[in-house]
Amino acid sequence: MATRAIVGEKVGMTQVWDDDNRVVPVTVLRVKPCRVVQVKTNERDGYSALQVTFGTKKASKISKPKLGQFEKAGVDPGPRLVELRLDDVSDYSVGQELKADLLADGDLVDVTAVSKGKGFAGAMKRHGFGGMPASHGTHRTHRAPGSVGACATPSRVFRGTKMAGRMGGEKVTTLNLTVVQADAERDLVLVRGSVPGPKGGLVLIRDAVARSPPRPAPRCAVAAPSRGSRRALAAPVPAPAAPRCGSAVASATPPSRATTRSAPPRR
Fold it and tell me: 34-98 is classed in which CATH architecture?
């Protein structure tokens, strides 16, 4: 679970340049100061979390149960209450403000938001189907999903079959986004990459819970050995054979005259 979290608003996308003059696409998030309304602990509530609010709203436009919660905490009422699940809430107190300086440049964060609603979409848009052939006798079924049923044995359509239906409007989390810049003076956080949801949508920013593993060190380019050389490398190297007794001495010393025999004279 996360150790830091904050609520923001999606402004839109833009681009910045890094120190090497390379373009970096970023999403601008407006992070207004969040006020802690309630601190939930494991001993009292069964889990640890922070209940925060942001912005301002007239007390006459808030329901009495929520207004009583704001008055009990002594916090100015906001448009809505958001709960942030954290591992440890011992460092937080009611009335404390959380700002954009909670994050630092280079941090990895997970951003959660509700994706854009697409309405009722077909199988090609919703699931990426290829569709029917464009010719060869296809009659007005080019974007049809095809057969979804089975034989008489099941006599039904299995649950979870990819078909047309409502698309979008779901809670989506984008993992391991890098914080390019956190500006507490302007209440802005720049995150590298795209963030789900429309402009003006509510986003939840927290520490990355599933950090990507580090990349392995680059290996030197080495030519792969051939098939024969692989066998030669895999075969054990035989130990040198011990010389036979007297063989090396006999080959090194020349034969003596006493042992040499001359050919018999020719008659």
Answer: 2-Layer Sandwich (3.30)
